[in-house]
Every structure is written in C-alpha cells, then in structure tokens.
Write a structure and sequence with these properties.
This protein has 296 residues and is α+β, with helices and mostly antiparallel strands. It has 3 helices and 15 strands. It is elongated and about 105 Å long.
Length: 296
C-alpha cells in the first residue's frame, strides 16, 4: 500500500485546505447567467423597445396630424376669405325678373353639408385672371361636387341675367375647382324674429342681412373629424332692402311711369330714393330724359 503525502510548509498550509495538488479556490469567482435570468432580461428588453416604438409612432402620428391641420387651416382660411370678399361685394336691386336674387339650396355629400349658394357680385374672387368675369358684375354659384371620387368645392360664374338657372343649363358654363380639401359647405341665416340661426331661406327675390358660413376641411383619415371654419357675415347690400333700390333696367312706358320699380320722368326720376334713372336720347311718350345705364 502506497501512501502519498504532501509535504507542505507551515507558512503555505493555510492556502490549500482542500488537499494536495489542487489549486486554491478564489473568493471572488463568478458563476454564469442562468437561463431564467436571460429570459427575464429579454422580456424586459422587449417591453422597453415596445414602449419606445409606441412613443415614436405617436410622435410621427402627431406630426402628420399637425401638418394636415396646418394645411387644412390654409385651405379653409382661403375659402372663407374669398367667400367674404364676394359676399361683401354682393349686388342687389329690386327686380321683378329676379336678376339679383340670392338663393340657397340645402344639400349633403358624404355625410357633410353641401349647400349651394348663388348671388350676383362685383368681386373677382375665385375667378382666374383670364376670366371675362374677373372685372365685372356676374352671378357666382358655389357648391360641393365630386372630383375624382371625392367631394370638392367648385364655383361657376355666369352673366347676371334673369332666369340664370335656365341659362346655366343651356350654355353649360365651365366650373372652376376651388379646393379639394374643402369638402363641405353650410349656410345658415339669422332669424331676427326668433333671434336664432335657421336653415330656411324662403324669399325668392331678396338678400339676407346676416349669414353664417361654415366650411368643412375633411381629413384623409376617416377616423378624424373634419375641421370646421365658421364666419358670421353682415351683407352690406342688405341695407338697400329698406329703401327698395330698384334695378337700373328700363322696361318702357310713358313719361312719369316706372321702369323696373324706378320712377322715370322727363328729367330722370328717383329709384328707391337715391338712384336716378333717366333717358336723354329717347322719348317715351314725353320729353327726353336722362341716361339709363344698360341693364338686364
């Protein structure tokens, strides 16, 4: 029997407690990660990445929506400002043939109001520079119609003549595209008696004193609500309703008779207490009178 022994010096004996020939175990030795620790670390990392991705996606969506809103504000403000220009320049005279009638039709398109408004104006708003109506009185019609499968704001211009609807159908005036972003238009009329806004406009040959315009700028995202732009407008020409200013149109008759509601005499009568209408180069059963501006 062979017995092996380790001869250790007394000063090194405490360094090898486990036996002869084995290296001493370090007090600072580290063990490897376990599978459970790796799985926990991966789950935490996935959660952190998910939160970061959601925050990033939310920021991108917010940026896109902000850009869309800014574009909508630009188009909505343009449409409203042009409408205000045309309405402030509305022309109206008391005319039996309804040449200057202000009309409103209630319609809808794709779930949004799509009213049709028509009136006579002297403003060149909405008109191209080469349009013959850009610098003279004309009837303008604003409405919502489909453009490449989506609603859009259109305008049609035509001469200010009686029975404008029949003439529009006969001559088929070309409409102008105003904005594809404006997909809704609503007109409300102020009811002085009830002190409230109403959709009804019954007079066939008149003009409202106050209206509320609302244009709707729809989003490309069907889940987003359309942006609304409101403007209350007092139409200046409505003040003529109290004085009944007649159209400067001659219908013939004897001296001292009426022409389109305007008194006409040898030296020119008064139309509605302020508009003088006469005819110097023409005798109508009496002496020559003043000059009458051409009218329809």
């Amino acid at each position: 029997m062979i017995i092996l022994s380790c001869n250790l010096k007394p000063e090194t004996e405490h360094l090898n407690k486990d036996g002869c020939g084995k290296p001493p175990r370090s007090r600072h030795a580290r063990s490897a990660f376990t599978l459970l620790e790796l799985l926990v670390a991966m789950v935490i990392m996935v959660i952190a990445l998910s939160i970061a991705f959601q925050a990033y996606s939310g920021t991108i969506r917010g940026w896109k929506r902000g850009t869309e809103v800014m574009e909508g504000i630009k188009h909505g403000d343009f449409a409203i400002s042009q409408l205000v220009r045309t309405l402030n320049s509305t022309i109206f005279f008391d005319n039996r043939r309804k040449t200057y009638a202000f009309t409103i039709e209630k319609e809808s398109n794709s779930g949004l109001p799509a009213d049709i408004i028509s009136f006579v104006t002297s403003s060149g708003a909405f008109m191209p520079h080469d349009s013959p109506f850009a610098s003279g009185p004309h009837r303008i019609k604003l409405y919502i119609d489909d453009d490449e499968g989506a609603p859009a704001l259109f305008v049609t211009a035509m001469p200010a003549v009686p029975n404008s609807e029949e003439e529009e159908e006969d001559l088929d005036y070309e409409p102008f595209l105003v904005s594809r972003e404006v997909q809704g238009l609503e007109i409300l009329i102020w009811d002085e008696e009830n002190e409230d806004w109403t959709e009804e406009w019954e007079p066939e040959n008149s003009v409202p004193e106050r209206i509320m315009l609302t244009v709707f700028v729809a989003s490309d995202n069907p889940d987003e609500e359309p942006i609304e732009f409101n403007r209350v407008i007092n139409i200046p020409v409505s003040a003529s309703l109290k004085d009944k200013i007649a159209s400067p149109t001659l219908t013939g008759g004897s001296t001292g008779g009426t022409a389109g509601g305007a008194t006409r005499g040898s030296t020119g009568g008064t139309a509605g207490g302020g508009v003088t209408v006469g005819n110097p180069g023409r005798t109508s059963g009496g002496s020559p009178g003043g000059t009458a501006p051409p009218g329809r």
